[in-house]
Design goal:
Two copies of one chain form a homodimer.
Chain A (H helix, E strand, L loop, with lengths): L5 E6 L3 H12 L1 H8 L3 E7 L8 H4 L6 E2 L2 H6 L5 E4 L7 H10 L3 E4 L2 H17 L4 E2 L11 H5 L7 E7 L2 H13 L3 H10 L8 H4 L2 H15 L9 E2 L7 H10 L1 E12 L2 E12 L12 E7 L3 E7 L4 H21 L14 E2 L6 E11 L4 H11 L4 E10 L4 E8 L2 E2 H13 L3 E10 L2
Parallel strand pairs in A: 1-2, 1-4, 2-3, 4-5, 5-6, 8-10, 10-13, 10-18
Antiparallel strand pairs in A: 7-9, 7-11, 9-10, 11-12, 14-16, 14-17, 14-18, 15-16
Catalytic activity (chains A, B): L-homoserine + NADP(+) = L-aspartate 4-semialdehyde + NADPH + H(+)
Family (chains A, B): Belongs to the homoserine dehydrogenase family.
Cofactor (chains A, B): a metal cation
């Protein structure tokens, strides 16, 4: 059953696909030596053969095709690498590849997060591999460790700074005291944020990545819609100022926690104690802390994103697939989705909270607030009256709570909103992990 | 070729072996589900069946044997787990297992560091796996990433705090201003250092681990004797005091750096800039920073050591071996030792240095010192005269250099030693990575 060479078909030759194509060409000898037989890029499917694009001009014209039928008919393609991103038509390509008995490598977090169960099932039925290490954390090894190194553990938690754009924005806000819109502009001008940044700043990107990590860690299907999501757009300079005064930093975390057979899954800003490891991960760096019941805490960190790091992960997956294809082994993944964990509703989580309220500067207001918290079984750990604005006769009040249930906090916020003396619940942010 | 069950033979049931035996027993269902067939501990070879030991009383008496012939004759053993440590007889057991066509899992850094090439060769010839993830960093995934996730990269560097005992001692010395002997005593009383601590404090343990990581990263044989080694016993409280004044911390690092086809390999104390990631890794924590040409810097960190984390790594290797054994695949490692990197002699490395000298408190001494540095082409970046001891008419002088060649520094130290006005070269420590 051993093959004498391994052929790769690549779909898309944008920034990631281009980097992958170059690594496969420039390191062909090294990669082939690892697999034991030549590993070759045999065909590239693209939308438009624009010969003025440098990446296209670098390769022989006949490597490229715009025709799908032609691409799938190319002989000797054992592995399909998908590098176009997005849900469709990527899903259709992955499905087609698996059904055709080709190993699949993808760097596409959205399609994997949304269609993991179906794709996994297809890969099993067709006895081929399905790999997507590059979909989370770029080049940082994050998925393989769950499948291999940590596989004897019950995973108890994942705490991740997994989106470089938002971490860069939060770092600027913390360091410079600027508002979100200004920090976003800076990130955009430096190329760290896209012109349409919703995917990052609204937390979708982190949700996709958490969904994928959780499926591997807990062997349980997690759809993006199952994950509570809150982006960073509501954070204000004042929140950072108060966080610092209280000994915290603000980070957008992706959190998965297991207890009593349930997992809670959420992406939102978090007040982290300043000395905590993840609190010190700044700029475009990514870091994932995971807790296994045997291994304790393990941390993976790095810059991760970008074409070269992403190609590092894609080509690692290509090598593993090539080795399986060459030896005729077929699907050897130990990933299953029958872990049977229940997903905990967001209303049932328990954590501490930070509140920033704008209140009327009148006697008795604090008693009203304390009453509402008390009615909802929320225990207050500190109340600090910050700025008083004499023109509007209002004051800013910061409240830190002891651990409380999210559902109780939601009820308290509604009650606060109804109170005349509360002008606004400016923000409430979860504290700690 | 598919097997209907996988049997494990364990050699040694000490702290690590005991933890492994318990995980294999307590998680049998979970592990078997991952492999697809039952995975069972079938025999344990020990030196003495002491029924008063709790770990032995926990298992059926007939699981144990003290007889080697009996152990190897046990039917249905596909995987041998070695958990006795040390070079011999561990090597003989590993050799015997591989020659008998059994997959091998070991947590033994010394035997792997010293005999990797021979064992790898045997594993190839007998088409079985050879795995030892637990040998470096306990449960922290460190070796598999070099073999899988980073396999498309040229590794440019490894910078590791990889021995918890020494890092604990250095952390205490830095925080409390105490001397080495006092910090060692504290570490011993807490169980963080052994009664005979030479293996840790003299750097042997770090050397074994660096040797193993380097062989995987550079695909080149590295014997422990190829690695320059300096422990932490010469460090004094004053070195920590001056380091702090100058903005540094002192860590015992294991360093492998590749450039121009050569690798330099060394374990010794290093002055690290305070803000540097590895400078902040304190106590018994381990951390490895590795640089790949595609991925950039990637960090792995965790507490690592101890029976549970080590069993996490051993059982991960058992699962991978079991999967190969069950599917009849045989050896699938991509690890080779034909990378052909040359090892750079220590005399040829270039780095900055810190010197602490005890000199006569007389005019002209600094000129003498400067003359010797100049003669050896070592450029001084700062000279600070610290304490003066009037009773001995001596002064302590701290010198920081610009990058210089190790051979030049060695010559300068010899010349300083010959100078009457230099009472002692108390220490010289390499600066930065």
């Amino acid at each position: 059953m051993r093959k004498t060479s391994i052929g790769i078909g690549l779909i898309g030759i944008g920034i990631i696909g281009g980097a992958v194509a170059r690594v496969l060409r420039d390191r062909a000898d090294r990669l082939s030596a690892q697999v034991g037989v030549p590993v070759e890029l045999r065909r590239v499917k693209i939308a438009d053969i624009d010969l003025t694009r440098p990446i296209i001009a670098e390769f022989p014209r006949e490597l490229f095709t715009t025709d799908e039928v032609d691409f799938w008919a190319t002989p000797g393609i054992d592995i399909v690498v998908e590098a176009i991103g997005g849900e469709f038509p990527a899903f259709n390509y992955l499905e087609k590849a698996l059904r055709s008995g080709k190993h699949v490598v993808s760097s596409n977090k959205e399609v994997i997060a949304k269609h993991a169960a179906e794709l996994l099932d297809l890969s099993r039925k067709n006895n081929v591999g399905l790999r997507f290490e590059a979909a989370v954390g770029g080049g940082i090894p994050l998925l393989q460790p769950f499948q291999y190194d940590l596989s004897a553990n019950e995973i108890k938690g994942i705490f991740a700074i997994i989106n470089g754009t938002t971490n860069y924005i939060l770092t600027r806000m913390a360091r410079e005291g600027i508002e979100f819109s200004e920090a976003l502009k800076q990130a955009q001008s430096l190329g760290y944020a896209e012109r349409n940044p919703a995917n990052d700043i609204e937390g979708f990107d982190s949700v996709y990545k958490l969904s994928i990590m959780s499926m591997l860690a807990f062997q349980t299907e997690v759809k993006p819609d199952d994950i509570y999501r809150e982006g960073i757009t509501k954070l204000e300079a004042r929140d950072f100022k108060y966080a610092e005064e209280l000994g915290f930093v603000i980070k957008l975390l992706a959190i998965a926690k297991e207890s009593e057979g349930e997992i809670e899954l959420r992406v939102h800003p978090v007040f982290l104690p300043r000395d905590y490891f993840l609190a010190k991960v700044d700029g475009v760096f990514n870091a994932v802390l995971t807790t296994g019941d045997l291994v304790g805490d393990v941390i993976f960190s790095g810059q991760g994103a970008g074409p070269a790091p992403t190609s590092s992960a894609v080509v690692a997956d290509v090598l593993a697939s090539a080795q399986e294809a060459a030896s005729g082994v077929g699907n050897r993944m130990r990933w299953r989705l029958d872990g049977g964990k229940r997903l905990r509703p967001m209303a049932d989580i328990t954590t501490r909270y930070y509140f920033r309220l704008n209140v009327a500067d009148k006697p008795g207001v604090l008693a009203h607030i304390a009453g509402i918290f008390g009615d909802n079984n929320i225990s207050i750990s500190s109340v600090i009256q910050k700025e008083v604005d004499e023109t509007t006769e209002s004051a800013e009040v910061v409240i830190m709570t002891h651990p409380a249930r999210e559902s109780a906090v939601r009820r308290a916020v509604e009650a606060l909103d109804r109170l005349d003396t509360i002008k606004a619940v400016n923000n409430f942010i979860r504290v700690g992990i």
